[in-house]
Amino acid sequence: MDTILSINNLSKNYGKLKAVNNLSFTINKGHVYGILGPNGSGKSTTLGIVLNVVNKSGGTYSWFDGTITTHEALKKVGAIIERPNFYPYMSAYKNLRLVCKIKNIDESKINEKLELVGLLERKDSKFKTFSLGMKQRLAIASALLNDPEILILDEPTNGLDPQGIHQIRDIIRKIAGLGTTILLASHLLDEVEKVCSHVVVLRKGENLYTGRVDEMISTNGFFELKSENLEALAQCLEQHQVIKNIKITDDLLTAYLEDELSAKDLNEFLFQQGITLTHLVKRKESLEEQFLQLTNKTDH
Ligand SMILES: Nc1ncnc2c1ncn2[C@@H]1O[C@H](COP(=O)(O)OP(=O)(O)OP(=O)(O)O)[C@@H](O)[C@H]1O
């Protein structure tokens, strides 16, 4: 598998503050990666380091297996790490034409990228007439002009209205579908869940989880159960080997699983013990619950 970026034990200190603490992860071609963490967890600092705008304190990173210099590598990277900034009185098209001139890119790409972000019809409108969402989409088009190997976005939907958020997420998925690797930083769990295939979870600069988003839900899940006799139900479940522990809240019993157990098998087992359920739902923790668990675990 082609490696786009590998980060090894990367650290950044601001005085005593460890903004990034011994962080390691690898980005492979063709996936959508999320760096997920609350505000101040070190997402922007990490992006700043690999984009060569923030100096690291320790560790290493290498682009494209270290086969080319960082300077050359960054020519294959499209990044938006600040609010989009273009000339307000110039049209979208003319702004992108200027970017092409500066970066020595063929102008023929402009229409294709404007189309991709849904702005082709507005190409002659002045930048200052654009909504925030349109400005962000123009920034994405601009970052894609040189067909980068990877697109890096820092909080791409910050400040946008629901429709704007939806459009940006659709565009990110579309770009990924065309084969571009994506790395996005976000503090929004559902954004990562909806857009990314892989995630690096950060808290106070430390890596709490790295892996596939779907595998992050690593537990076997739990059952939510109700019965007219909760006491008897609880006693019965305690004898079941696969039930790890039980929690009762009002009339709802939650039974956490240590191993695989189907709803059918549990229902049969309870019925044989003379217990009739009035409610049976099998659930897995959402990424949000999992994320909260991960962040709580290290909260001393
Ligand atoms: N130039 C700086 N000088 C001192 N401290 C800094 C500097 N830049 C960032 N920090 C601190 O480093 C930590 C990580 O900040 P960073 O911006 O990387 O986090 P983040 O996860 O991107 O959060 P946000 O979404 O709020 O930007 C924070 O505690 C922040 O205050």
Automatic annotation (TrEMBL):
<comment type="similarity">
    <text>Belongs to the ABC transporter superfamily.</text>
</comment>
<feature type="domain" description="ABC transporter">
    <location>
        <begin position="5"/>
        <end position="229"/>
    </location>
</feature>
<dbReference type="InterPro" id="IPR027417">
    <property type="entry name" value="P-loop_NTPase"/>
</dbReference>
<dbReference type="InterPro" id="IPR003593">
    <property type="entry name" value="AAA+_ATPase"/>
</dbReference>
<keyword id="KW-0067">ATP-binding</keyword>
<dbReference type="GO" id="GO:0016887">
    <property type="term" value="F:ATP hydrolysis activity"/>
</dbReference>
<keyword id="KW-0813">Transport</keyword>
<protein>
    <submittedName>
        <fullName>ABC transporter ATP-binding protein</fullName>
    </submittedName>
</protein>
<keyword id="KW-0547">Nucleotide-binding</keyword>
<dbReference type="GO" id="GO:0005524">
    <property type="term" value="F:ATP binding"/>
</dbReference>
<dbReference type="Pfam" id="PF00005">
    <property type="entry name" value="ABC_tran"/>
</dbReference>
<dbReference type="InterPro" id="IPR003439">
    <property type="entry name" value="ABC_transporter-like_ATP-bd"/>
</dbReference>
<dbReference type="InterPro" id="IPR017871">
    <property type="entry name" value="ABC_transporter-like_CS"/>
</dbReference>
